[in-house]
Amino acid sequence: MRIANLADRAVLLTGDGTAVDVADASGGRFGPSPRAVFEAWDEFTAWAAEADHGAGRPFDPAELGAPVPDPRQVFAIGLNYRDHADEANLDHPEDLVVFTKFASALAGPDVTVELPSDRVDYEIELVVVIGRRVHRVGPEEAVRAIAGYAVGQDYSERAVQLRGPVPQFSLGKSYPNFAPFGPAVVTEDELDDPGKLRLTAVLEGPSAGDEAVVTLQDGTTADLIFPVERIVSDLSQVVTLHPGDVVFTGTPAGVGAPRGLFLRPGDVLTSTIEGVGTMTNRFVAR
């Protein structure tokens, strides 16, 4: 399944480019709130597998919002790709490096991002959405708690993030639209292997210089230091994870700061994860 948010209502995206309204198709049993689908995950997936959803309606992909616009918690994992830790000249972590992006930064997949400064960086990420309440679970149970996956970008204003006396990771990463994700939450049965997905971030615009298009990031989830089941399990040793919670799982090498490249007005960044989807963000001056 591909579960999305269309005009603040939960929908199923179909293979023919239409959307089925979950609340209408289920006779009000599920939805219309996007998060409500994940709060009744077991019942919803059983219904979705058997029900006749009826015909969908055409939609404009630009209308899609964040698949979960109001999660209880948003987590982000740092230094979680081997090549990214290497480009930062840092040791591979032995434990999760965790921060948060505040929920007001969440946005749909194809939003325009206002740049608060000339120090805004990009990081394509596989996003995990939680489908079951869990606390202190092992990796095997953690896998069963994952509802699905989405494409995400973790934008960062590096000056605020790194200013003293101590870094302000969460604050510098939480300007409006600094956490776009989507276009849908894709369940594992739609993917060959979540542990072997290709991620690419492609730039057009002034920051691309003389080249029309530049591939900034090209990695694979096979390079994750902590795979998704380990992330969920390790988080659950401390916190209780709730249905609809969102986890940004880290980024591969190629981010802007190490190369002195930051986003500029007029840039267009297209982020793609194999089998999961594509989203495009445009950047303007604030």
Automatic annotation (TrEMBL):
Tell me one GO molecular function of this protein: metal ion binding
The yes or no answer to whether the keyword Lipoprotein is present is: no
Q: What would be one Pfam family of this protein?
A: FAA_hydrolase
Q: Which UniProt keywords apply?
A: Hydrolase, Metal-binding
Enumerate the Gene Ontology biological process terms: small molecule metabolic process
Query: Domain Fumarylacetoacetase-like C-terminal spans what residues?
Result: 74-283
Gene3D superfamilies in UniProt: Fumarylacetoacetase-like, C-terminal domain (3.90.850.10)
Does the keyword field hold Hydrolase?
yes
Family from the record = Belongs to the FAH family.
Please identify the protein, giving its name as recorded. Fumarylacetoacetate hydrolase family protein
Q: Which organism is it from?
A: Pseudonocardia broussonetiae
